[in-house]
Specification:
It is a single chain. The protein has seven helices and 32 strands. It is an alpha/beta fold. The protein has two domains: about 1-225, Spore Coat Polysaccharide Biosynthesis Protein SpsA, Chain A (Alpha-Beta Complex), CATH 3.90.550.10; about 250-360, UDP N-Acetylglucosamine Acyltransferase, domain 1. The strands form seven sheets. It has a seven-stranded mixed beta sheet, sandwiched between helices. A seven-stranded parallel beta sheet has the order 15-18-21-24-27-30-32, with no helix packed on it. Strands 14-17-20-23-26-29 form a six-stranded parallel beta sheet. Strand 2 and strand 3 (about 30) form a beta hairpin. The longest helix is centred in the middle third of the chain and has 12 residues, at about 220-235. Bound molecules: guanosine-5'-diphosphate-alpha-D-mannose and magnesium ion (MG). Magnesium ion (MG) binds near residues 218 and 220.
Length: about 350
């Protein structure tokens, strides 16, 4: 079984974090998001994978290469202009060699049992099988109606509230027979959600639902990205097993001063330094090479790599990206600070999410 992972979106709602870092490479407990997706495919013995990329390809290729390190074989496809979800899979057709394939939205973290889904697809002789998950607000997803036999009867992308008839939505994992690709024009922007699925349903083709209540999160917004990290720390997914005694993990070559008060759940990466009289309160993730200097307080936040939080600083409910310097005595709360930002000594930043990478603030 081959798989195509769609990693071409612009990550617009995750800006400014995604201006330098593709959504797929955003760190989740200090590992790129996409690594979880690829390792999960490998666990289900899906080892031939195409990454359909449309922009910011280099950081992805640099990290994953030919996939060897992760026990898979990776191919990459590029798009001159974004081809949409279906257009991107059509663009990967040569690698699929006329076989059925899995298609995964590349921004979803889920414990979905892929093996069970592939078995179900084969047994039901469907042309396509779509994984479903329940959500509170279907208007930001693709709503999927089914009949009593689990056959899909309607697909409505981003429905208005008045059109919401169910809380079940497209969970962004499909199993497709190769004939589906014949409905997609080559080198044309084309969408599964708005074009291919509604069209197949109009023709009464057999499309089945594979509903599941397992852990599922789309990292489309900073809030959901933070939620995902915290959910993992709290043991809500089977893809991360927190240390059951302390739920505090400290990486290699990291130093934590004995006077630091660390309250779980906390993950500290490699080569970090946590200074005297600091207070770290989970859920909290600190990336490799970051320093939290004396008397600082950091809580409910995600700190990426090589960040320096200088002394007497307060960071709460925030995301701080690579290489930032947060000046002494400052306060950062409910904010998103993109790569390489310098915040001046004593600056107060509250509810800020429109800073440009590299900026000097204050
Ligand atoms: N290669 C490529 N080219 N990938 C793309 C393109 C493209 O032009 N456009 C989007 N993608 C990728 C995105 O990177 C993402 O992984 C996936 O396709 C879905 O696109 P999003 O932009 O994230 O869509 P969405 O979140 O609004 O809605 C989709 O996901 C929901 C579940 O999270 C739809 O599939 C909904 O039906 C679904 O419910
Ligand atoms: Mg999405």
């Amino acid at each position: 079984m081959k798989a195509v992972i769609l990693v071409g979106g612009l990550g617009t709602r995750l800006r400014p974090l995604t201006l330098n870092t593709p959504k797929a490479m955003m760190p989740v407990l200090n590992k790129p998001f996409l690594e979880y997706v690829i390792r999960r495919l490998a666990r289900h013995k899906v080892t031939d994978i195409v990454l359909a990329i449309s922009h910011l390809a280099q950081p992805i290729e640099d990290h994953f290469g030919n996939g060897n390190r992760f026990g898979v074989r990776l191919e990459y496809t590029a798009e001159e202009t974004a081809l949409g979800t279906a257009g991107a899979v059509k663009n990967a057709e040569e690698y699929l060699e006329g076989e059925a394939c899995l298609v995964l939205n590349g921004d979803i973290f889920t414990d979905l049992d892929l093996t069970a889904m592939m078995d179900f697809h084969r047994r039901s002789r469907a042309l396509a099988t779509i994984a479903l998950t329940p959500v509170e607000d279907p208007t930001i997803y693709g709503l999927v109606e089914t009949d009593d036999y689990g056959r899909i009867t309607r697909f409505l992308e981003k429905p208005r509230w008045e059109d919401v008839t169910t809380n079940m939505i497209n969970a962004g994992t499909y199993m497709l027979e190769s004939q589906v690709l014949s409905y997609i024009p080559p080198q044309t922007n084309f969408s599964f959600e708005r074009q291919v699925f509604p069209y197949l349903l109009e023709r009464s083709e057999p499309i089945y639902a594979f509903p599941s209540l397992c852990y599922w999160m789309d990292i489309g917004t900073p809030e959901k990205y933070r939620r995902l990290n915290f959910d993992l720390l709290e043991g809500r997914s089977n893809q991360y097993q927190p240390d059951t005694t302390t739920n505090i993990s400290i990486g290699e070559y990291s130093e934590c001063h004995p006077t630091a008060i660390v309250t779980a759940p906390v993950v500290i990466g490699d080569s970090c330094s946590i200074g005297k009289n600091t207070r770290l309160t989970g859920p909290l993730v600190i990336g490799n090479g970051s320093n939290i200097t004396n008397s600082s307080v950091v809580e409910n936040s995600i700190i990426w790599q090589n960040v320096s939080v200088e002394e007497d600083t307060n960071v709460r409910q925030s995301i701080i990206a690579n290489g930032c310097i947060i000046g002494a005595g400052s306060l950062i709360t409910d904010s998103i600070v993109p790569d390489n930002v310098t915040v001046a000594t004593g600056y107060r930043m509250i509810n800020c999410s429109d800073i440009q990478p590299g900026a000097s603030i204050g």
